[in-house]
Amino acid sequence: MEDDQKTQVERFTPDNAQGLSSAQVEARVSQGLTNKYDNNKTKSYRQIFKDNLLTFFNILNVALAIFVITSGYYKDLAFLIVIVANTAIGIIQEINSKRTLDKLSLLVASKVPVIRDGVESEIFANNLVLDDVMRLKTGDQLAADGILTEGYLEVNESLLTGESDTVKKHPGDFLYSGSFVISGSAYARVDRVGEESFANKISTSAKAAKKRPSELRTAINKILRIVSIIVIPVGVLTFVRQYLLGMEYALNVSKTTASMIGMIPEGLFLITSISLATSAVYLAYKKTLVQDLYSIETLAYVDVLCLDKTGTITEGTMQVEEIIPVDPEVNVLLALSNLCGASKDENATISAIREYAGSKHDFSLLKEIPFSSARKYSGASFEKEGTYIIGAIEFVFAGREDDFPGLRKIADSYADQGSRVLVLAHSRQTPQEMEVPPDARPLCLIRIADRIRAEAPGTLEYFYSQDVDIKIISGDNPKTVSYVAQRAGVKNADNYIDASTLETDEQIAMAALQYSVFGRVTPDQKQKMLAALKRAGHTTAMTGDGVNDVLALKEADCSIAMASGSNAAKNISTLVLLDSNFANMPSVVSQGRRVINNIRRVATLFITKTIYSVLLALFSLFLFSSGYPFSTVQLTLISFVTIGFPAFFLALEPNNAPIKGSFLVDVFARSLPGALCVIVSILIINAISAFIPYSMQEISTMSMILAVAAGMVVVARVSMPFTRFRIGIFAASLGLFVACMVWPWARSFFNIAMLQWHQWLVIIAIICVMPLIMRFVARAFQTLAAKYEKKYGKKPEPFSGDFVQGGKDFLQDKLQQATKKLPHKEKEDKN
User: Which is nearest to 657 in space by CA: 715, 592, 738, 612?
Assistant: First the structure.
């Protein structure tokens, strides 16, 4: 298949100036030889329906519904209303989110300059056809495999090969799709498209960032995996146990179904998906395109934000402030204007010089030296005029700075004032490759300044207030970067380092933790700095707009690109700022924190029910003579009042508090007290019923009231501090349950029995001690967590083997302490 496109169709070899004709393009389209490839950032409609309908728990719920139908207890099918509603809401929300994000994706979709019918135009990458002529320049990402036909390029193939070295490409060389142009300009003929292109053949497309780890996704999947393992075996055992107790078939089915439904946190995954999807739509209206939903979560955890100076704290544009002649006999403006005319670079520096000196073509060009972020200079060789080089002094005169001592001193004095200083050098020689000729001499210094974004100081201050550390990483002179950072409001901006002095990976790693401002940083060093910060336990975010930022963007936990930046940066990033405005970042972070904080809050409600449902099902196998305490309709009411109704509103509340601690540990610690409180309460009811005869319906009613009471206490705890809105939610939930208790039709529908005064006294007494039970369980969990962390050197992770062992050790210690307090055996004998 690899060579099918070469052997089975007629190949065209169009002239670079003419390109393919319209007829040839139409022929390629009819042959299916276009660059269309299914690499959407969002799910397809088919995938949305599949993911929401064909889930393990939905299939289980359908099976349980059939089980209920066989019993004739049709009102127990009420639980399906919630399931169907959840599924429908999930599908509708995901479709709306997809439509919004797909529209915005078109704004940042990669476009490729092509030559067709002798005219250059930009088309979407998926509209390329075989043998199209592409015009490539610095910052472009190759959308299809091609053959370089004219010009010279330096490309980075790291996303394909893992090697970050620059690869030089000359006419006739093969260009791989997914690689990035870091220097030069050229024409290339498309050689392979669509599924046949190199990037689309590898398992992870170079156009997509690596899948970021998500604590939220991992935690929820772990919970669902454990529940899915135990729900069917426990359900079967519950049915058999109740059958052996002589329970009639219909009631047995109702209670068994309730036990299995109770274990399923049916709305947790839905709430999570809806919250993330809603946030993506919200951010879309805030001019931010989310290319990975879970990046919203990651950004909420970020504690180190790495910024590229250009385009973030500065406007991304520069202006020439002064030309300082070194050789007054040379017409430097004429040299600069011809250098700008020969250069095909479009970066901020050359644009500023072009604006100042103009662009002329008086000199006859022999060779262009395109700018490279690794070289830090550019230039051109002209017939009879020699070679002109412009760039940073320490790179243009690498190893020869001592030959021009006054030059360095002048440049440093301007750099201390926040200016970027370049040198224009001249040589009579023409370089063989891209090196600076050894006889180059300085002609003038060029002082250039950045324009600080007006909103930058306020934006940076927001991040500092949120305990996020800021690091400025730039390829410019470190003194210049430091001065610009001070003007923008970066703390410790005077704590800077010249990255060109860092020679080993160990030095880079130490500097990444020690300094706040970095200058003369190469793309490879940026990546290593991000990796070092991650190894130190930090959650990192990186902003960038150039091809030199690609490696660091890929390395960061969360990557943010500017829409005005290169295609390479946009394709690799998880978030794209559509208006290229860094001031939007606070709203993005706030949205992420709102989502994660609220998901933690509502997850507590779901996991509370899951924990006590699992334990009740296990206890009903051995302890409860009346079987599982709830019927299906009763559990549906409990779930709606204590979970569904409050969770829906709490998940949408604003909440910008910093994220702390593990998701699973935090949710488990909040859920366990309420869950065990329900277990203790129902155990007490069943113990009392052994001495005072209660009917099965009375036990179910008392158990339901106590489960709702404990659930409302949990709702109150996660709603702290109370606001009018939260008080309203709490009151409405409680009021709904009370209405069902007193309304005759609802009492009949939910199988609620009329209780005696002494039964109400028992319920009230248990409710009064619930806070004490919860406090005891919470303290026991904290003690267990502290002992676990002391023994294992890390925080506990629920459901892990070490965590279970830590719980056993804790119980053994308590048992030994209790044993020591018992009277000695000899004293018992004497007594």
Answer: 592
**Is 55 buried (19+), middle (13-18) or exposed (0-12) by CB count in 10 A?**
middle
> 86 pLDDT exceeds 80?
no
Amino acid letter, 588:
V
Residues with Cβ within 8 Å of residue 518, at least 6 apart in sequence: 471, 472, 473, 474, 478, 481, 496, 497, 499, 511, 529
Closest CA to 788 of 810, 813, 767, 819: 810
Whole-angstrom Cα distance, residue 200 to residue 176? 11
- The pLDDT tens digits for 473-487 are 988 778 888 888 888
The string of pLDDT tens digits covering residues 640-653 is 899 888 888 887 77
| For residues 203-216, average pLDDT | 50
Q: What is the maximum alpha-carbon separation in the chain?
A: 119
Q: How far is CA 79 from CA 69, 633, 652, in A?
A: 13, 7, 24
Q: Are 560 and 152 in contact (CB under 8 A)?
A: no
Q: At residue 104, what are phi and psi to the nearest 5 degrees?
A: -70, -30
Measured distance CA(791)–CA(794) in Å, rounded: 8
The total number of residues written for the chain in this structure: 831
* DSSP, res 547: G
The Cα–Cα gap between 559 and 554 comes to: 7
Q: For residue range 3-60, what is the model confidence (pLDDT) as tens digits?
A: 455 446 788 989 999 999 999 999 999 988 888 765 555 677 888 888 778 877 888 8
585-620 vs 215-244: helix crossing angle, rounded to 10? 20
Per residue in 746-780, pLDDT (tens digit) is: 888 888 888 888 889 999 999 998 888 888 887 87
Active site residue: 308, 345, 549, 557, which one?
308
132 as an active site residue: the answer is no
Alpha helices in 109-214 (DSSP H): 158-161, 198-201
- Which residue type does 407 have? L
